[in-house]
Structure prediction request, 282 residues.
Amino acid sequence: MRRMTGKALAEAIRNDVTQRSGALLERGVTPCLAMVRVGDRQDCIAYENSLLGCCEKAGIAARGIALQKESGQNACEAVINALNGDESVHGILLLRPLPEGFDEDRIARLLDPKKDVDGMTPDNLSAIFLNRGLAFAPCTAEAVIRLLKFEKVELEGKEAAVIGRSLVVGKPLAMMLLKENATVTVCHTRTRNLAQVCQRADILIAAAGQKHLVDGSFVKDGAVLVDVGIHPVGDSITGDIQPSAYEKAGAYTPVPGGIGSVTSWLLMEHVIHAALRAEGLL
Ligand code: NAD
Prediction:
């Protein structure tokens, strides 16, 4: 079975992003990403730190805004409003999930779609559902499509199953697979006979957030497996798919080293696109 790491694609995106940010810098524009975190969830801090590393490599200025969860919804909305109006900021990332009691939907509606580099606003999400170009898709959903295409996995006419129906991954990804002419089944917690449903899939994408949910019984011989899940194990991470399930697959994305690495660089790409658009260059 073929191991589809995200390394080569992430590098290709990195080269393109670095070149474009250099060109922007020459015009006197510093592309800038603002990251807003509420609370101190370890997974959010880890993602933020890894994005800081990408920003540094890409020549993108990073601005981290950390709020205590006690500061409340109004403080978070005030920060988003201020960043919306700040011309030096091109992309805004709200680290999710927010602490309990916060209304993510209200913040999504407040965020300027032109700066919404992780595709959470109604404008950007609906553009994906309506097949309109130029929208920012949620980076993880886009990373799955981009890696499958990069690896030349044919999607047209194929049976694809997505486990998970969140607005961050599952739902937008299902729409993006439809756009590629796959036949898509979306599975969720109420899906009956999950393993049997997944067994029909030529391409099985696990985005359930359940460690090692998928075992060999879910996998059709020769299927392509894509693992979106992230679960800490000691100093490393594992995914939603048990490594033993790879044996039946034709190809698979590992965790770590699969979708996650592409996701971070796509976010950088979105920041550059936002900066280029703000300058009227895209
Ligand atoms: P979520 O909790 O919002 O959604 C999970 C979805 O999976 C839900 O729709 C739920 O119905 C479904 N689900 C949960 N358990 C299930 C089960 N036992 N059977 C069938 N369906 C089930 O999670 P999310 O934000 O969509 O993230 C999913 C996973 O992807 C998490 O592990 C998260 O850490 C990871 N993630 C990875 C990246 C990346 O860059 N690789 C980015 C975002 C999220």
Remarks:
- The CA atoms of residues 58 and 281 lie 19 Å apart.
- The radius of gyration is 19 Å.
- Residues 7-26 form the longest helix (20 residues).
- The mean pLDDT is 97.
